[in-house]
Design a protein that fits this description.
17 helices, Arc Repressor Mutant, subunit A, alpha/beta, TIM Barrel, three-stranded antiparallel beta sheet, nine-stranded mixed beta sheet
């Protein structure tokens, strides 16, 4: 059963124009009310999910670094009481690199956080303004410096493939980022998501996204630079020194069970897909009414689970173990995948194959979404 716990904090100081995550801006947050509700949601999830020791906890959002450290500590203390912690548990908190939040890093470390992921997003002030960030580059770098003083493991995010961004510009920025010495980087191409302000701006011709060929060139440059620096890509957008990979995110990508609490949080446990109410007020009302924030709990068919496992696992450099998936979900390799297309794309250099295993090559990764749509068997998707 689940050995990972995700805790969603839905609040931000502002909504970034590229963001389609479940984040909300509120004038005030009653922290005592939220602590009680999150603890109740956690206890109910523990009743349902079993009692294996947790190997990872991830505070995501939203902006979890806005949480009072005392609230973080209370949640961790209760999680340890309920599940117990495995030796060397990874406990990550996402945060914005502002001076206000950096002032809490010492207290967060004392509360039990041992890994942070900072949303720097860019080292360029003009790009940060375009991305709607509230910090500037200098403030972000100062926050990174403070984080490295208090946490043994630090990651940060950068967004690239911005409108008009050249290879020389991105190379200079990434080379600088690699020089800060963190063991993990999350490097995302700017994607225009439906329902975001950026989607509206593009529709109204306020800016033009970088074209696909130029973005693919930057993707390849990213892979070359991080590999040379000893932080190779272990997932399509995530790069790490050996041993510094996000163990929590690997739980998702390897399709292992995890619990999710808080507004909009998803979970997978024992073949069930769980999702909490997205809107903070609806989630709070649900917890008050029935003791948890659950909006839906649905049994997944073996075909749906196998399809999800393929879609997640092929994001990884290590690929997927087809023999293991076949045994786990009682499907043959031919039922899992369109074997003709696997052969075709392997011959094109976009896939690699080993006995019982399949993965996407570096050349194939820029085309991952299209490849996944081609590879996963229609019979499997239809259940």
């Amino acid at each position: 059963m689940a050995r990972a716990l995700y805790i969603h904090w839905p609040f931000c100081l502002a909504k970034c124009p590229y963001c389609d995550f479940n984040s909300h801006v509120r004038a005030a947050v009653d922290h005592a009310e939220w602590q009680a509700a999150l603890l109740a949601d956690m206890r109910r999830e523990h009743e349902l999910a079993g009692g294996e020791r947790l190997e990872s906890i991830f505070f995501g959002g939203g902006t979890p670094s806005l949480m009072p450290p005392a609230l973080v500590e209370a949640l961790l203390r209760e999680a340890e009481r309920l599940w117990g912690f495995a030796e060397g548990i990874e406990i990550t908190l996402e945060g914005n690199p502002s001076s206000v939040e950096a002032a809490n890093y010492a207290a967060l470390a004392s509360a039990g956080i041992n890994r942070v992921s900072l949303g720097l997003q860019s080292l360029d002030d003009a790009a940060l303004r375009f991305l709607g960030r509230l910090h500037d580059a200098n403030e972000g770098l100062k926050a990174l410096e403070v984080a490295q003083q208090y946490f043994a493991r630090v990651s940060f995010d950068l967004i690239y493939a911005l409108p008009g961004q050249s290879p020389a510009q991105w190379q200079a920025q990434l080379a600088r980022a690699l020089g800060f010495g963190t063991g993990h980087l999350s490097l995302y191409q700017l994607t225009i998501e439906l329902g975001t302000r950026f989607a509206t701006m593009v529709r109204q011709n306020e800016f033009t996204p970088l074209d696909d060929d130029a973005a693919a060139d930057l993707f390849e440059l990213t892979r070359q630079l991080t590999e040379a620096a000893g932080l190779p890509a272990y997932e399509i957008s995530n790069h790490a020194r050996l041993g510094e990979e996000s163990r929590h995110n690997l739980t998702y990508w390897r399709y292992q069970d995890y619990c999710g609490i808080g507004p909009g949080a998803h979970g997978r446990r024992g073949g069930l897909a769980t999702v909490r109410h997205k809107k903070p007020e609806n989630w709070l009302a649900s917890v008050a009414d029935k003791g948890d924030g659950m909006a839906e709990e649905r049994r997944l068919s073996a075909g749906e689970q196998a399809s999800e496992a393929l879609l997640m696992g092929l994001r990884l450099r290590e690929g997927v173990d087809l023999d293991s998936l076949s045994a786990r979900f009682d499907f043959s390799a031919a039922q899992l995948l369109d074997t003709d297309k696997v052969g075709f794309y392997s011959a094109q250099g976009l896939l690699w194959q080993e006995p019982g295993k399949l993965g996407v090559t570096s050349q194939g990764m820029p085309l991952l979404d299209a490849l996944l749509g081609e590879l996963v068997s229609a019979e499997l998707v239809e259940g």
